[in-house]
Structures are given as C-alpha cells and as structure tokens.
C-alpha cells in the first residue's frame, strides 16, 4: 500500500486515484492529527466486502479454508498453477 500525505494527495489527486486503478491496491492518505483514509478501486472494495461476508460464518469460513488447503495440496502434488490445469 502506497502512502500519500494529505498535502501531497491534494496536489496529486489524479495520481492517488490512478495508483489504485493501475496497481489494484489501496492508497493511504495520512493527515496530521487524524486517522488515515484509504482509497481503493470499487472492484477491490466489493471483493473485500464479499470476503468479509463469506468469512462471517465460522462454518462457511472453515469450509473455505478447507477448500483452499485441498487446492494447495493438489498444486503441490501436481505442479499445476491454476485450477483449470488440475481439472
């Protein structure tokens, strides 16, 4: 995550917005005496919201983590680097 100061971000607002779009990650804006703010692309925000929703249920979180573990075992055994290669 790249950090911008409030003063710098105000002067380079387009750069702050472009950073998130190009790098697909958050840009943090810091202000003296205030909590920082984070700017991120809407698709990344929605992804975070979906993940929080899915992980909210302990049973669902466990199933998801078990599925990830099985996929990682499969990749380790077969050397496949994508799901479609292992199917």
Protein described:
This protein has 87 residues and is of the alpha+beta class. The protein is 64% helix and 17% strand. It is built from 5 helices and 3 strands, in the order βααββααα. Strands 1-2-3 form a 3-stranded mixed beta sheet. It is elongated and about 50 Å long.
Fraction in helix: 55-70%
Order of strands side by side in the largest beta sheet? 1-2-3
Q: How many separate helices?
A: 5
> Which term fits the overall shape?
elongated
| Sequence stretches where pLDDT stays below 50 over 5 or more residues | none
Write the layout of secondary structure elements.
Elements: E1 2-5, H1 6-11, H2 13-23, E2 27-31, E3 34-39, H3 42-55, H4 58-78, H5 83-86
Parallel strand pairs: 1-2
Antiparallel strand pairs: 2-3
Task: Explain briefly what this protein structure is.
The protein is of the alpha+beta class and 87 residues long.
Summarize this structure as a short list of keywords or feature phrases.
single chain, 87 residues, alpha+beta, YefM-like fold, 2 domains, three-stranded mixed β-sheet, 3 strands, elongated
